[in-house]
Amino acid sequence: MTLKQLEAFYWAATCKNFAVAAQRLDISVSSLSKRIGELESTIGAPLFNRDNRSAVLTPLGERMLPHARDVLGAAEHFMRRANDARALSGRCRFGVGELTSLTWMPRLIAMIQQAHPNLTVEPHANLGQALEVMLENGELDFAIIAGPSTRTAIASHAIGVAEFIWVAAPHRYLDDPPVRAEQVADATLITLPNSAGTVRILDEWLTEHHVRISRRMTCENLGAVAGMLREGLGVGFLPKAWARTLVQRGYLMELVALPPLRPLQYTFQWRRDDTRAMVQQLRDIAVRAVDFDITPCLV
């Protein structure tokens, strides 16, 4: 029995499917299956029940899974103690929300490549809920999204906050901008959808000020939201640095009299059972890289 065989068994059992597990280990599906087969031969019993479409743990596989996790965790701890500063190699897949992708994600990648030139990074931008599912399924090594996560399998570490301000097109209000929270209900509210992290601060704001929205327009793209606001289709909020750049150019006006939104906490998230040194080292880099005040590349 080898650690590679245990790795193959563990990730095959805890990822969405064998293909995702093989990607995580940077090997082919056939190599993954071979390692699992070798482990089953050593044990003398199957760990998976296989058919043409899926593989499900046997009762023995279910019993052995926590023991495999313990052995792999101990091995990872040994390697960290042997050389905590060793350079990383292989591949890392991570997910970020749209705001992170438009602001400090390029800086994060540059810092990762400087510290670990042999590590190939594959970023994915999506809405927070979708990224959490991918993370839990083993399709991502970590994600940086609004948090903390409510999923028990995912750990969260706070790394920074993003601030948002209320805006609208200058021609929409002319000399009579809204000054009370309830006046927002009289206009169409233009935002990202409920699966985005910003719904956290929006729900808090609406509840705190007893506002019920009757008309709302959502779009998954933050740039499109900014464009609809600029066109005067409604009111909404944008990241502070982005919004104030558009205000300076005369495209939007800041609705300064409205009660402010609370800052949105962002977290570095990873699977609790993932004890690899890579995850912890990249979390430390993310803490140094985070900066939501960078002007988005779209403006």
Automatic annotation (TrEMBL):
Keywords: DNA-binding, Transcription, Transcription regulation. Belongs to the LysR transcriptional regulatory family. Pfam families: HTH_1, LysR_substrate. It comes from the Bacteria. It comes from Bordetella flabilis. CDD domains: PBP2_LTTR_substrate (cd05466). This is LysR family transcriptional regulator. The keyword Transcription regulation applies. Residues 1-58 form the HTH lysR-type domain. One of its GO terms (molecular function) is transcription cis-regulatory region binding.
